[in-house]
Amino acid sequence: MISCLRSTLVSSDEHLVQIIGADTIDDAAEEILKALKEDTDTTRTASSRNNVIYFDGWNGLGASAVLRAVARRLAASATSPVGLEFEQVIHIDCSKWESRRALQRAVAEQLELPVEVMEMFDKQDEDDFLGVKKDSRAEVQQVGREMHRHVQKMDRRFLVILHNGSNEEIDLASLCGFPLTGYSTNKVLWTFQGRFRLKPRMKVDKAMHSAGTTDVFISMAPSREEQEEVWRYLLHQDTEELLAACKIDIASYGIIHQPTQVAECLLYMLELCSRGSQGTHYDLSTHGGNYWVCDGIIRRWLQHGERDVSAADDDDDVLWRAAVALQHEMPLDVDYYQHLSSSHLARYVKSKPYWSSPAYGFTRVPDGVIPDGVPALL
């Protein structure tokens, strides 16, 4: 796939967004590495700010894959290019968000803090066991101070790559003690997006105001006139990311183990979103997996030989467990449904035939049920 790179700047609320033309994960990774290079310009001052970079992918798609590609390239380089001499790259994937404390612990583990410091997490978790929910557990302040001292003592140049699954910007300087202001040459590369956790730009912009620590905002856009191939490629990349990162081994259910299958589930959810604009509320955040089963999206894979199940009861049980597991791994942001018309993916959703009635709303017609020549709603 040949691409022609271009870059433009647009204003978005209180920050500038750099939009770069790129058609592949590799192209985007190269552009991000350029952005991470330390400026050797002698005019740099303490007020120069380009240490914290947010990457939005292609309207959310591909962001996680690009961050991972950047980490791989830096790890594989025997000699670092000028400006990319990081003594330590800390790669933290918190796409499945647990808490600020869990993020702090993950960074502390990679810094290899002393045992007595790590034990502070366990003690605080014990204190919070009955009174504080896991997702509400804040960072441990004493650990933060120890991390700051440890980082200062190591005197290394760090790059932190963060997949942020929360709904707010994280100030890693205060949370983990990384110097990121003044003359510091440490860098942070992070994203909200990843593995179909798609956030509309409006929500990303709003979250940026929570901490105000991000200096650079980068987004990608297809550089080719024919963009459909690019969007389908990115869809495939995100499905591979999702399957590779699943904590629940979906493949063990014997149904969902190919990127094309996961992509079909996502596209069907987007199709339901588009119908929702016609007055039907599907509550996809709760019942998305149910539609995959009831409308035959997953069952069709069984019929096409994706799995050999002898007992019908076992068959149904496997279907439901697979649907629940997959929905758990790819929860679309609810606000994304409301802004679907602005999504580039929406134009590639192929509508499937369905019946419509005042009593039952939309009912999908299974494949092969409608004879040739008989019209259906599309």
From TrEMBL:
InterPro entries: P-loop_NTPase. Gene3D superfamilies: P-loop containing nucleotide triphosphate hydrolases. It comes from the Eukaryota. This is Uncharacterized protein. It comes from Panicum virgatum.
